[in-house]
Amino acid sequence: MDDDDAGLWTRVRQGDELALAALFDRYDARLFRHASRLLTHREDAKDAVTVAFFELWRKRASVRLVDGSPLPWLLTTVAHCARNLERSSRRYRALLDRAPVAATATSGHDDSGVLSALKRLPEREQAVVVLSVLEGYPEREIAQALGIPAGTVKSRLSRAKAKLRDELALEGVRA
């Protein structure tokens, strides 16, 4: 444990974002390697590290250091995040495996413009629309598959439908 960790940690606890950035620069590569060993996808490993640092900042008043370093806490948090991401990914893949293939999605032809409007939605809204409207899954199963609360499914679906309705109205398509 070098003195720099103790000094940086004192500054982080006082709300110094630059000190957090310095800790990130110091431990990012090591935490990424740790997450990469636990996860299948590189992007998930990046997410796990990001979430761990977000939690470090959020819980900075209660984080327990080991020998004056936040590294053990960060390694543990990255492992927890990795397990959560892997579990969520498995549920999502299982749901997709059970989903029937829609004829309209495979035909590649869209005279109405609905599919192109759907593709312009943010990815998280697309996922909810596809699972709910096109595939017919109930909100509870969508929430479980995406790892989000049922209320979030409802709000994303409502927002996406409003966007689609507005966009299709501009194109002259009756929704």
UniProtKB/TrEMBL annotation:
Keywords assigned: Sigma factor, Transcription, Transcription regulation
Tagged with keyword Mitochondrion: no
Keyword 4Fe-4S: no
Pfam families: Sigma70_r2, Sigma70_r4_2
SMART domains per UniProt: HTH_LUXR
CDD domains in the cross-refs: Sigma70_r4 (cd06171)
Highest taxon, organism lineage: Bacteria
Coiled coil: none
Family matches, as InterPro entries: RNA_pol_sigma-70-like, RNA_pol_sigma-70_dom, RNA_pol_sigma70_r2, RNA_pol_sigma70_r4_t2, RNA_pol_sigma_r2, RNA_pol_sigma_r3/r4-like, Tscrpt_reg_LuxR_C, WH-like_DNA-bd_sf
Every HTH luxR-type domain range: 118-172
Homology family: Belongs to the sigma-70 factor family. ECF subfamily.
PANTHER family linked to this entry: RNA POLYMERASE ECF-TYPE SIGMA FACTO, RNA POLYMERASE SIGMA FACTOR RFAY-RELATED
Protein name (database record): Sigma-70 family RNA polymerase sigma factor
Organism: Microbacterium algihabitans
Lineage: Bacteria, Bacillati, Actinomycetota, Actinomycetes, Micrococcales
